[in-house]
Amino acid sequence: VDKPPVRRVAIFGGTHGNELSGVLLVKHWQENGAEIQRTGMEVKPFLTNPRAVKKCTRYIDCDLNRVFDPDNLGRTVVEDIPYEVRRAQEINRIFGPKGSDDAYDLIFDLHNTTSNMGGTLILENSRDDFTIQMFHYIKNALAPERCPVLLIEHPSLKYATTRSVAKHPVGKYEK
């Protein structure tokens, strides 16, 4: 199947404000983005949860990585709406809307973990041929270093993660 080329890529850091690897990389690339820019592509580094980053805490009111569902994205903005729900709506406006042809092609969401899993790629859809081929390329480029791929696909669950706004969501976890 002939698919349009990937033209818009976002790199997210700070979805959880206490996971600093992605925060530091995003801040570095915001100051000097030359190393991530490619001809014919827009690559945008983005700090997803700046209030949580400032406090160095996982989140302020609720987990940003769990509120990208239709109910939260469609909520009316009122004064007492949780900060992360408001932020999810803003991210959806910038990089989405989720599920649309206008959504960013690819979002890399950078995380840390305390698990001994090393650098791990997260795949949400085993039928996403583009992402599977990209993971194959990444794994070959990193060889002989290990780079496991964790498939978190569920037959009836629609993911409400930060990266799910993109046509091709990618999670990257690092110990």
UniProtKB/TrEMBL annotation:
<dbReference type="Pfam" id="PF24827">
    <property type="entry name" value="AstE_AspA_cat"/>
</dbReference>
<dbReference type="GO" id="GO:0046872">
    <property type="term" value="F:metal ion binding"/>
</dbReference>
<dbReference type="InterPro" id="IPR055438">
    <property type="entry name" value="AstE_AspA_cat"/>
</dbReference>
<dbReference type="InterPro" id="IPR050178">
    <property type="entry name" value="AspA/AstE_fam"/>
</dbReference>
<protein>
    <submittedName>
        <fullName>ACY2 Aspartoacylase</fullName>
    </submittedName>
</protein>
<comment type="similarity">
    <text>Belongs to the AspA/AstE family. Aspartoacylase subfamily.</text>
</comment>
<dbReference type="GO" id="GO:0016788">
    <property type="term" value="F:hydrolase activity, acting on ester bonds"/>
</dbReference>
<keyword id="KW-0963">Cytoplasm</keyword>
<keyword id="KW-0479">Metal-binding</keyword>
<dbReference type="GO" id="GO:0016811">
    <property type="term" value="F:hydrolase activity, acting on carbon-nitrogen (but not peptide) bonds, in linear amides"/>
</dbReference>
<keyword id="KW-0862">Zinc</keyword>
<dbReference type="GO" id="GO:0005829">
    <property type="term" value="C:cytosol"/>
</dbReference>
<keyword id="KW-0378">Hydrolase</keyword>
<feature type="domain" description="Succinylglutamate desuccinylase/Aspartoacylase catalytic">
    <location>
        <begin position="6"/>
        <end position="169"/>
    </location>
</feature>
